[in-house]
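Exercise 7. Given the components listed, write out the predicted structure of the assembled complex. Treat all entries as one system.
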Amino acid sequence: MLPFARVAIIGMGLIGSSLARAVREAMPTVQLTVSDASAAVRERVAELGIADDVADNAGAAVVDADLVILCVPVGAMAEVAAEIGPELAPDTVVSDVGSVKESVARVLGAALPGVHVIPAHPVAGTEKSGPDAGFSSLFKGRWCIITPPPRADEVMVERLSEFWRRLGSKVDLMDAPHHDRVLAVTSHLPHLIAYSIVGTASDLEEVTKSEVIKYSAGGFRDFTRIAASDPVMWRDVFLNNREAVLELLGRFTEDLVALQRAIRWSDGDALESLFTRTRAIRRSIIDEGQDTEKPDFGR
Amino acid sequence: MLPFARVAIIGMGLIGSSLARAVREAMPTVQLTVSDASAAVRERVAELGIADDVADNAGAAVVDADLVILCVPVGAMAEVAAEIGPELAPDTVVSDVGSVKESVARVLGAALPGVHVIPAHPVAGTEKSGPDAGFSSLFKGRWCIITPPPRADEVMVERLSEFWRRLGSKVDLMDAPHHDRVLAVTSHLPHLIAYSIVGTASDLEEVTKSEVIKYSAGGFRDFTRIAASDPVMWRDVFLNNREAVLELLGRFTEDLVALQRAIRWSDGDALESLFTRTRAIRRSIIDEGQDTEKPDFGR
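Answer.
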């Protein structure tokens, strides 16, 4: 039996449109209704034919759904929740895919009293945006972290877990504040640093932008990939996971200053010892199937 | 006509062994002699059959060579230069592949007076090390930066340029100090930051190492690739390009602190504006053929 029979997806960017395609592929009998705030995106999604129905607005999309998944930037959650609230059927589960969970749980919980709000976060994505960038296998072999609020309905949590497993994901349950601290390390800080270094590199006087581009194969190009991610989505992540990101940034800067000092004082042993230690982490990530073993990512 | 007929390569790691394979493929009639400080590596290279001869030491390898390329860590250049000096034939060109050029030019120039010392740097590599990690196509479509010292013999510089073009590289000439500033941006700082963030992530108390590994697909795993690069090679890079790296680190930290402040004061516009600007650089790197367009590096 399917965990949900009528699914509504709000927001048809990279993640929402991948989700639509994945649902179609894994659970073809699910009735799938989608919507997006942009008329151009709605039109494109209709052309792509990746949903049964494209509704004109979020409210219309969720009527009769037993699962609603919000795939909008974290900062847009409150507005969308206000739109869908009056239209939700009893016992509908409302979930999302946002990279921050504590603030989303708070916003959705406040806007949708009495609704089964069960936030979730599939740890998957690419640097591309929009409905054409999505693909059905995005979630396969990746983790989906579900953060049930205290007193969440266990049956509904299990149904949502089963939904993600059907899409090929591995599911973990976690409380929202811990999720936000973990993702600050594995996702938010890396994005912030990548954005920052790419910004620094574009502002130099002695080295031209065209030189930076030409010789980027020395390492820089790896950072530009994640610094090409969706600007609004990431703005909202940092505004909504402020404490965890700031705390971690403090530690990172401290460690970087220690390295800076080692370079200034020619402390080769300190450098070599850190550089040796970091190799082991890469090995574990490959062993866990979370990255490819191919040198240079197979490029 | 071949630019060089008898080539010696000292150091059979990723770069040296890739170079041997590339020379074999592109210029099969070149007489190729190689060596390495490690007996185990020399034995493995002989098994791999990627050179005509594996000499017991650097001095023996360079006898009769008209081109010698040093593929050893930057900090080992002085020692190798002392070994090969007495054995070099007149008019031999001595070059290298180090990621730092000003200090290498100084060290080789001092150790090998009267020799055609023409340092070079192929901007290519992977995170793997050792003779088994090398492959013949590593330099294809990549830039090789040659940094001829003042008063270098122009004919020899052109022969060395032609040598790299035969391996599929595009060649640029640059003065050594400018090279070091450019590479500090496109390679050295990215590596330092990647090593640093991977170090920070392994030292947390609230988030376990296994969580960092599990959820690394959120962005962190991209950093672990370059933080798996050879520790000794990179130690030497930082010790030998100190001024340029420290100057750039200062700017990077300044920019990062500005971002930190934008997060603390919820300045969404500042964040979004930077995150939008950084997308264009990625586009240019792909247009220049220095990275793949495939989302997520095609993973």
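Discussion: Chain B touches chain A through 105 residues (CB under 8 Å). Residues 178-298 of chain B form a domain with the 6-phosphogluconate dehydrogenase C-terminal fold fold (CATH 1.10.3660.10).
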